[in-house]
Amino acid sequence: MAQSVELTFDATAETALIAQWERLAAAGVAKPRRSDPDGHHRPHLTLYAADAIPEPAESGLPEIVADLDLTVRVGAVTIFGPRNGTCILVRQVLASVELLQLQQRVALACEADPKGQFGAGRWSPHVTLARRVLGDDVGKAVSVLGSHGEVDARIQRCRRWDGNRRTAWWLT
């Protein structure tokens, strides 16, 4: 899934989430944050991802995400997996009606498979903290994060990520 539509967080929330990435890396649970001179590697909430985004959706996305102003709660630590002996460590994003409606507008415009992970009622809003966490390190990761890692975040920006070209651009 090299193409995505992503929401980004206000500076305070982004800083708090990056601090969690850094704590996990310092504990040896996750890879260190990669060098990113263009600022593309940042905490985000993916609304839709696929191998390609159809052209009609591409040109219509800015209108769908215009006037974006949402507040979300980045909540509990959750584990996706395990698969092949590793897990993905995420923080669940509590879904408001407005967030769910926005995600569905984006998914419909992008012609998401209704039975796929971005179909109605199938999307799991989250912020990824670490990928490829070994099963034996999950407890350590949760301990490193502590019990007070929840973040209230404001979302006002949406971007398109092109993983093939490793570039992003703002839709709002």
Please mark out the parts with pLDDT under 50 across 5 or more consecutive residues, or reply none: none
Count of the domains: 1
Classification by helices and strands = alpha+beta
Main sheet characteristics: 7 strands, antiparallel
Helix content: 25-40%
What does the radius of gyration come to?
A: 16 Å
**Percent strand:** 35-45%
The averaged pLDDT comes out at 92
Global outline: globular
The DSSP helix count reads 4
SSE order, one letter for each helix or strand: EHEHEEHEHEE
What's the helix and strand layout?
Elements: E1 3-9, H1 11-26, E2 44-50, H2 55-64, E3 70-83, E4 86-93, H3 97-109, E5 126-134, H4 138-145, E6 151-162, E7 167-170
Helix pairs in contact: 2-3
Please, could you describe this protein's structure?
The chain is of the alpha+beta class. The protein has one domain (3-74, 95-125, 152-170). 27% of the residues lie in helices and 35% in strands. It is built from four helices and seven strands, in the order βαβαββαβαββ. Strands 1, 2, 3, 4, 5, 6 and 7 form a seven-stranded antiparallel β-sheet that branches. β3 (70-83) and β4 form a beta hairpin. It is globular. It starts with a strand and ends with a strand.
